[in-house]
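As agreed, record minuted below.
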Amino acid sequence: MIANISRQLTTGALAIAGTVAAFDFAGAAQAVTVSTLTITGDATISPWGTTNPVLTPTSVTGVSNGTGQFASVTVANVTTPKPFTLSGTGSGTNTTVTFSPPPGPSLGFTTIATPGLVTPNVTPTLATGSNTPIASSASLTTYNVSGNAIFIEPFLPNFLGGFNISFTLGGAPGSVAGTYSLTLVKTDIPEPVAVPEPSAILGILAVAGAGAFARRKS
């Protein structure tokens, strides 16, 4: 069981590391990881073999590893993360199953008071699961969902980052009471500002030019 939990944590760490590495490349090798936070709690988890399993955090019982903007965050400062519904059915044992497509974006996935309110909007890019027997009539099921995040700040700009949430369900078949661990990583790369398409800019200039010409004639 310990070995499987270690593999689960390693999977989450690799997912976060991959996200940060991608941002590091995009950000011209600047030091991008500025704030991290881990949130843990209870969850209701669909048993292995359920079609389109639902992963529902139900409480926040702990926070740890807070750095940067999240260094002083406590349990009282965060809200329970929103649920995910995966696509597909977990099957087999001692193997990793990829659920595809991954869940859709989750706006307001959780909130963090810093004391200003920070809201991660997350977009999953990968969802996996595995099931491992731990006794004659018990098993350990894990689900992992990871991807990108935009941290909506109290004041602009907002910042890019990543997330990984791991769900663990252990016990007899049919059990649904488990736990989750959510890791958030916020970088110092601002969210890109939408720039109008060149055609739209030309249209605006054309309208402005026509107006100026009309004023000159009058």
Notes: The longest helix spans residues 2-26. Residues 2-217 form one domain.
